[in-house]
Amino acid sequence: MSQTVLAEDGSILRNFADENGVWRFPVTLDEVSRNYLEALITYEDQYFYHHPGVNVFALTRATWQWISTGDIVSGGSTLTMQVARIRYPEPRTVWGKLKEIVRALQLEWHFSKADILTYYLNHAPFGGTYEGIQAASLGYFGHKVKQLTDAQAALLAVLPQAPSYYRPDRHNERAQQARNKLMRRLVTLEEWSTERLNDALIEDIPTITKQDYQSAPLLARRLVTQSTAPQIKTFIHSQWQGQISNLLRNYVHGIGQKVSAAALVVENQTGKVKVYAGSADFNDSSRFAYVDMVQATRSPGSTLKPFIYGIALDEGLIHSESLLMDVPLKFGDYQPDNFNGGVSGPVSVTHALQKSLNIPAVQVLEQLKPIYFFLKMQKAGIELKLPIGAKPNLAVALGGVGSDLEDLVYAYTSLGNKGQARHLRFSPTDPQSQQPLLSEGAAWVIRKILLDNPDSVSGLAVKTGTSYGFRDAWAIGVSQHYTLGVWIGRPDGVPMPGHYGQVTAVPLLNNIYQRLNDQRPAPQMPDSVSKVDICWPQGDMVKKDCEESHSAYILDGTIPKTWYNTASLQQPFNQSEFQFWQANDSKLRVNISCQIEAKRQKVTVWPAPLDNWLTPEQHRSSRIPSWDSRCETTGNIIRQSAVRIHGLTDQDAFQLPKQQNRNIRISAEGGEAPFYWFLNGVLLPEQQRKATLKDLKSGNYQLTLIDQAGSRDQVEFSVLLY
Q1: Mean pLDDT over residues 531-546, rounded?
Q2: Rounded-to-integer distance, Cα 625 and Cα 640, Å
């Protein structure tokens, strides 16, 4: 059976022929124009509503003319007899005609005139592969039968009598003569006026068939594979769909060859899909036109970061201004870099999310645990795809997982729907459902952060993403009523250097947003969220001696304290206050066992990995006094003075064999554990007095050592492999 996919307003998105290539689209009497029914009844069967299926007088006349002349001069078949012939084909013989008459009488006995006429309208042949008046109207004129002009109605009324002979796209002159003959007959029978005839005669006969409808073609194909219904209704906004499809087509031509794009627009409150563009140009096979990039699995880049921060908010791990470390950090054997290659030092959650910084996002995911984040997303119905046998790891934060535009847009609807992710609905038969992803408060905070981003368009909370190697450019936005998502790239996975989310996908997203004319009021802050002033570096609420104040959104009154290292290196004494004994006379640091008068002191310290990115006044060495030379440790009598690197001296040069272990053993003299070793700015996992520089390559190196008190030493050396 032929199938038609319809937009929300009833307009046709796409037609599909049946398994035999025949186009037939169901239509009811109410959907057929009055002028066509008028022409049809007048031409085919004037007494249709009065005879019992057979017009005895017409049949007798036709039979006598045939016997007298040996030729068929006029037809005697009624519409009911034609329906019998369509339904039960018989040879054109006397016996076949008799069987046709009997079946026509049976049809009239069992069915109403409306039923018989409706069957004819849906099954009569109209030339080529068109069966039924709706298919013919769409194929020859490009619009539904309800919109037929008088001339078009007359042409379609005569066409079934000899569909191949009168087929207008092949035999234009014959079709015109038959059409005009019928129209003049309508005037003779006083059904039409002369003026109406003259107006209709001006109209040309179509010389070519219309192109098949191709709006939302990939969505239409998707839906017909899931349903056998002759008509499939969708929620597609036909005007937006056309505008945005044209926008995508023109946009990718300015990027490069073989580049495609996809776009979705979804209502936040209902999940109704208003726009579905699976490829940039359905008629351009060079751009992989038939590959639906709405469903294609790709790397999501940074688009998952809002949910890492949102779930961490719900878990009480952070608030909007939590202090994070955008510095070179190593998480076990994983060392992420920022997209731009630089670092910012101390940053807030808000700044990290707005600038899409990688290292802070990994820091939060490490505290949250990758497996917990993965399962939380999975429980909400968001499928993140991993290689067979692989487990979620920290790379998930930067796109080290598979996803698709459909799932991402689904997830982002939670930011516009009080934390509830709305399942996408393509047609009225799809059930309404939603899954909790974030709390209402967390969803509001994340959306507020994105809305306040200076790089975003007013009223649209935008997050971008770029996959490794510039293969995918993403932009997803949440407005008052809609969630919008776009993907740009090459479906074959070839990189597009220089194209990334902010510069390539965001302009397209903004262009789509402008066409929606959506309202732009700010979402109301829920009761679970409050705004307080907090202090850096501690993370506590502001007190009289606050060093650096930040205005933060907190959830359920929870104010988590600052993390002072990566999760794997955190220790109980990594706190914001450092306590020590200070000699009364020298003001230097002493042990409690020293026989020197001293007082217990405490100072505020920043996380040690940030030390190289703080002002001199914020360094630990500026706040914690060095050791008093009068105090010595027991046992090995090592003076507790400034820390020093042992095993390397400045400007050392090493020649190491390529085939052997390329390691250098080092240690710290003096200072106080834990020790922070930085190799070329990257924090090493070792925090003990002894450490090993492993797997060195040829090049220049800078090694920095900082102890708990902020005392530091630094050397530069080089390595040459042979």
Answers
A1: 88
A2: 12
